[in-house]
Amino acid sequence: MKPYIYITRKLPEEAIAPIRQKYEVKMWDHDDVPVPKDILLAEIKQADALLTMVSDTIDEKVLNEANNLKIVANCAVGYDNIDLTAAAKNRVIICNTPDVLTDTTADLTFALLMAVSRRVVEAAEFIKKGQWKSWSPFLLAGQDIHHKTLGIVGMGKIGEAVAKRASGFEMNLLYHNRTRKPEIEQKLGTVYCSFEDLIKKADFVVCLAPLTDETQNMFNREVFQKMKHSAIFVNASRGPVVDEQALYEALVTGEIAGAGLDVFEKEPIDDGHPLLELSNVVALPHIGSASVETRTAMINLCIANIEAVLEGKLPLTMVKKNSKICTNSK
User: Fold this and answer.
1) In CATH, 102-283 is 3.40.50.720
2) Which of 238, 244, 255, 307 is catalytic?
């Protein structure tokens, strides 16, 4: 009997065609609606492998239903949607998709920074609505990016890629990270500083920190009040690192100048979300890695990880926290 792979979103048939010959493969029928929990619970009972999205919650309840599950391949760098402790207990290997999306996500992060600072979305809507009646010196005037100070919170691979892009704008580069990165300091001229100093000094604060117990709601009202009034905040990491009510209040009261958001505390967001009402917010639907090339590469990496594990080999990108306590066999 062929190993059974369940995929929680509808993917392009050409992406999974190579594995259909060797494995039994089933996909959820929709690409824009998460698989319902009851269906996931039913499928995991027989699945040898799961290919999941970051919006799928793979918690202890789900993992305890697994009888044959050997691997969950998460199509994302982050894996806070998966209970690693429960996975280890059930001898399930967890994999993610690092590296392949680094540059694409960095591009989008810097695009958000530029869009907010130069009021690109406001200007595009202004002209589309027929509001451009005359020219004036300060019509939709934004802020310069070049020669300003960029503070990066979370200097992983994506943070380094954002710093590289900022160096082309001759920005002053500050960063805060759990561990200092001397090699990046030397290569890019970045300066390590405390979180407190970074938020006070930076003209642009970019959050690329992973979601952990320590980072949840790390950007709260007190933090926003310590930023420059002209500061622009960009979040391309995870929504829950930000207290959204505090961010809204900071933007409305002018404590900071603007925000660019690719992620939210609850996704997808509800209609009428307060942050969407603000002209100084550029909001995107979690598309940091959403280029055709990169999403294809992410899917291919998930499939490669699944094939490796089902063939009794080590996967290419096992989550480190999981790798210490999981083996290839369940």
Assistant:
1) yes
2) 238
> Which CATH number, 3.90.190.20, 3.40.50.720, 3.40.50.2300, 3.30.565.10, labels domain 4-98+292-323?
3.40.50.720
Q: Please say if 119 is a catalytic residue.
A: no
Q: Catalytic site residue 122? A: no
Residues in the chain: 330
| pLDDT at residue 327, as a whole number | 47
Q: Is the pLDDT of residue 152 over 70?
A: yes
Global pTM reads 0.92
Residue 16: exposed, middle, or buried by beta-carbon count in 10 A (0-12, 13-18, 19+)? Answer: middle
Known catalytic residue at 160: no
CA gap 198, 11 in Å, rounded: 41
Tokens, residue 319 = 């989550």
> What pLDDT, in 10s, does the model give residues 52-103?
999 999 999 999 999 999 999 999 999 999 999 999 999 999 999 999 999 9
